[in-house]
Structures are given as structure tokens and as C-alpha cells.
Amino acid sequence: MQNKVLILDFGSQFTQLIGRRVRELNIYSEIHPYNNPPKDISSFNAVILSGSPLSVRGNDVAHPELSEIKGKIPLLGVCYGAQYLAHFGGGNVSPSNTREYGRANLTYINENELLNKITVGAQVWMSHSDTIKELPDNSVKLASTDDVEFAAYKIEGEQTYAIQFHPEVYHTTDGKQLLENFLVHIAGLEQTWTPDSFVDTTVADLKEKLGDDRVILGLSGGVDSSVAAMLLHRAIGKNLYCIFVNNGLLRKNEFSEVLEQYEGMGLNVKGVDASARFLDELAGESDPEKKRKIIGRVFIEVFDDESHLVENAKWLAQGTIYPDVIESVSVTGGPSATIKSHHNVGGLPDYMKLKVVEPLKMLFKDEVRRVGASMHMAKSILGRHPFPGPGLAIRILGDITADKVKILQEVDAIFINGLKEWGLYDKVWQAGAMLLPVNSVGVMGDERTYEKCVALRAVESTDGMTADWVNLPYEFLQKTSNDIINKVKGVNRVVYDISSKPPATIEWE
Ligand code: XMP
Q1: What is the pLDDT of residue 35?
Q2: 22-34 residues labelled b (16+ CB within 10 A) or e (exposed)
Q3: Which of 8, 93, 155, 402 to pair with 370, CA 20 to 30 A apart?
Q4: Shortest CA distance to 32 belongs to which of 370, 336, 327?
């Protein structure tokens, strides 16, 4: 594919943001670790060097070979990237007298193509403790701030630029303009990477790659597997065999409703109700990890049985997305790159011998949603909260019975439907209810009760790695609690979880 940007990652916490900003300009970008660059560097039309927690003066300095890049492909060094180009290009990088973090303003601009349309006074975001004291050979200063003389510079005779600040963060107000100046006006890239163009090229690629082969895909009801299914459906139609397993631990009515929705989308989907099998296997088990393992194993058995019914299947499709496959640079543990493990339909038996196809593996989550929207998929699928694979099993603390599942499904439905009715659902990243293994005393009418307690949980987050509880309106909590206690037999107490992650987690098990 032409028209693409390579981002070499030196371990900055902002590297993924660079990737996103570039894509927001409708230009395709890929992130690769500095110590494991792609083989086909010359197929990239521009390169960006990210920031890093490392220092160019340190012993463990990241020192990639740039001979294929510098002077040959338009190059932009950001923060560490700028210091790297200075340090190894004949300049001088030293510790700065004051550590420079946060807001600064450009106080000097030497009119130039990189800072076109950006004026003195523009706010930029700094995050560095080294500073460039002397520029590398053949360089010209392009901008300064009060504290940073060489906030931007270029190397003459090359399309090589460097900036000390971070254009990718929101607080650099003209960051997007700067990236546009570099990528569109200097590197000459076309802004053609849109959800529509992604759908067109991906469908064409899938057609060519898969031909008349049969493909199996496990649908979960979530956004990623659903969008992956739609792309494949457009490419190969009935040769896509979707399998949607009911493990008996889904939300209330979810199996039938989602199955109907999939059928309405024209998908060749088979719903497999294996609830009884899952609940049988889980009976009496209360250890969270053992519950997860049982569910994982039974899922694979059911999926395996079903996929054997599809004769001559050659491929297994997965809804893997980009954050699952970006190799992360470990700056503390040496230059070893680790790949995060996939969590989708992981661990399928070897004997299935299927080739894997992952149409979304270069997209971020918000891009998956936009691609789904460009294929006119329903908002009720695209806007869905994340839901764990083991489902309600890890929200029923202790052992699982059909009765407990039923109680929790009712409680969860009241909570989630309430969030939707009150216009709160889209403001919350994830929400659900936990059935606690405690009974507490209550009074209903004139009678003493001794019944179950449920905890409601609603969090805001971007990726589930950290999360904070949501300040839901008291009136909403009051109504929800009343509805639950009045309508769900067996529950006499509702609490709201006000713990952040860390130190708590989102799920209770
Ligand atoms: P925790 O509880 O670790 O959850 O803060 C973070 C996110 O991961 C989801 N989660 C799971 N997803 N299988 C999954 O597919 C699991 O075993 C699992 N455990 C937690 C959780 O719902 C949240 O979105």
C-alpha cells in the first residue's frame, strides 16, 4: 500500500497518540519499535521518530540505524527523536537547568514550511529533562520558547525536521496543523485514508486473498467481531460461517436479540445454545480463575464441534484490533519487544489447522466504530459497552447456578436499560452488576427478609487499564435501587461501587 507513515517508537507514552493524529488527517500510519523496524522501510513515504523516557546520553541509548531513512525519506523527530538527531548529527544535548514539563509558548518563529500557519504565541506541550544546546551540522533554527532555544529546527538540503515539543497531545494547540504541514505539504502525502476507502480496499483485498474459500468466525456480540464479520460478509457473502455461542452467561435476552440483529444484517450466522453445557461444567466451582478456564475450554469444545460441521473450512477470522498487536517497546527491561497476546478466540486446538484472517488488525477501536458506521451498522452494536468473555460468571461471586444467573440478568437489565433511558449509557465506558455472596437482613411489608445483595458498577476509562467510578446522579441511583428491590425477587439490598482501578479492578473477580 502506498501513502503511509512509519512511526518509530522509542517507548514514549504518547506514541499511540501520534499514530492516531496522523490517521485523523486521513493518512495511514504504522507504529513499529525502533529496535525492530519493518523490512520494507522504503515503502513508507514519511517517518516520525517518537519521544522516549530514555536519554540520548544514557548507556542504554536507543540507537537505530537511520541510513535508509535520513536524507532519503521525509523525517520528523519529536522530543527524544529531535534530541537523537541532534546528538548523533554533531550537535550537543545536555541536561537542562530546569526540567521542562507542560505548557510553553512559541516566542520566536523563523518563517518556514513546517510551522506554516502557526504564529508566535502558539501553545506547545513540553515533556523533557534534556535539552538541545547545539544544533547538528547544517541545521537552521525554526522556533524557540522562553526556555527552549531550539524548539524546532531543520537540516538543510534534506526533508529532515525536528521539534522538542509534542504535536500529538491535545495541549499543543496547533499540533495537527504542524503534522499536516509535515505530512501533506512537505512529504506530499494524500489524505485518502477514510473509513469508506478502508472498507473498499479491505473488501477487495479479502476477496482476492480468500477467493472461494470458506471462513469461520466466532461472533461475540461485541463491536470488533461484528465489524469484522460485516467486512468479510461484503467480501465473500455466504462463504463466511459465523458461529454465535450462548454460554448461558450473557445479558438478559442478549442471545436472541443479537442473533436476530445479525440475521437482519444478512450474515450467515448459526446460533448455538450451549447454556446447559456451560452451567453443568461450572456447577460447584467458585474459584474465579478456574471458572474462567472452564468457560474457555468449553467454548473451544463447542466452537470446535461447530466448525467441524463446516466442511472444507480453510480460515479462521478474528476481530483482533491494533492495540492488541502493536509491539510495545520495553525501555526498562532492555531492548526486548514483546507482543501482547490476543484475547479473542485464543488457544484454538492445533489440529484445526486453519489459517487466520484479521481484517481489523491495523485499526484502533474508534476507527473500528467509524468503519462499522460507514457500512451502516446499527448504533446498538457499534456503541456497545465492553463485556467480558466469561460474561456474568465473573460477576456472580462464588459458585454459579441457573437461579443466580437469572437474578443477575434481571438486575443488570434494569441497570443498563435505566442508563439508556436516562441518556447516561454513552457517557459510561462500561457498566454492570455483581451478585455478591452475602445475604443481608431487610424488611419488606411486615416481614423480615434475608436475601441477596447486588453491587452496581459504572466506570469511565479509555482502554480498561485504568478506570474511575462514574458520578451517576443520585436520582438515577435512587430509582434504579428501588426498581431492583421491588422487581427482582431474592434481592433486598443494592450498593454502588466507588472504587477506582487501580487499586481495585473493574470486575470483582
Ligand atoms: P479488570 O477487571 O481486569 O477488567 O479491571 C478490565 C477489562 O477486561 C474485562 N475482563 C475480561 N474480558 N475475559 C475477557 O474477555 C476475562 O476473563 C476478563 N476479565 C476482565 C473487563 O470486563 C474490563 O472491560
Answers
A1: 87
A2: bbebbbbbbbbbb
A3: 8
A4: 327
Q: What is the pLDDT of residue 345?
A: 41
Tens-place pLDDT, residues 148-186: 999 999 999 999 999 999 999 988 999 999 999 999 999
Angle between helices 474-487 and 402-421 (to 10 degrees): 150
Q: C-alpha distances in angstroms, 122 versus 111, 147, 174, 427? A: 14, 15, 7, 32
Q: Which helix (H) or strand (E) holds 435?
A: strand 430-444
Looking up cell 450462548, which residue turns up? 246
Write down the residue that cell numbers 443520585 correspond to. Answer: 474
pLDDT at 100: 72
Find out whether the beta carbon of 343 lies less than 6 Å from any atom of ligand 1. yes
Measure the CA–CA gap between 480 and 457, rounded to whole angstroms.
Answer: 12
CA gap 249, 272 in Å, rounded: 13
**Looking at the predicted structure, is the pLDDT value of residue 331 above 60?**
no
Pick from 386, 414, 392, 387: nearest CA to 279: 392
CA atoms within 13 A on the CB side of 478: 3
Residue of 32, 87, 128, 168 marked active site: 168
Sign of CA dihedral 332, 338, 343, 344: positive
Q: How confident is the model at residue 335 (pLDDT cuts 50, 70, 90)?
A: very low
292 lines ligand 1 (CB under 6 A): yes
* 166 included as an active-site residue: yes
* 3-class SS of residue 68: coil
Rounded to 10 deg, the angle between the 365-374 and 223-236 helix axes is 40
What value does the mean pLDDT of the chain take? 92
Candidate of 343, 460, 507, 509 to mutate for ligand 1, largest count of ligand atoms within 8 Å of Cβ: 507
Site to probe by mutation for ligand 1, drawn from 387, 500, 506, 508 as the one with most ligand atoms within 8 Å of Cβ, is 506
Evaluate if residue 337 carries a pLDDT over 60: no
Q: Exposed e or buried b for every residue in 141-166, given b needs 16+ CB within 10 A? A: bbbbbeebbbbbbbbeeebbbbbbbb
Looking at residue 174, its amino acid is D
Enter the DSSP assignment of 105.
E
The answer to whether residue 168 is catalytic is yes
What pLDDT, in 10s, does the model give residues 370-387? 999 999 999 999 999 999
Is 392 touching ligand 1 by the criterion CB < 6 Å?
A: no
| pTM passes above 0.70 | yes
Structure letter (DSSP) for residue 181:
I
Alpha-carbon dihedral sign for residues 364, 84, 86, 131: positive
For the Cβ of 386 lying below 6 angstroms from any atom of ligand 1, the answer is: yes
Q: Which three cell numbers stand for residue 216?
A: 469461520
Q: Whose CA is nearest to atom 3 of ligand 1?
A: 505
Active site residue 79: yes
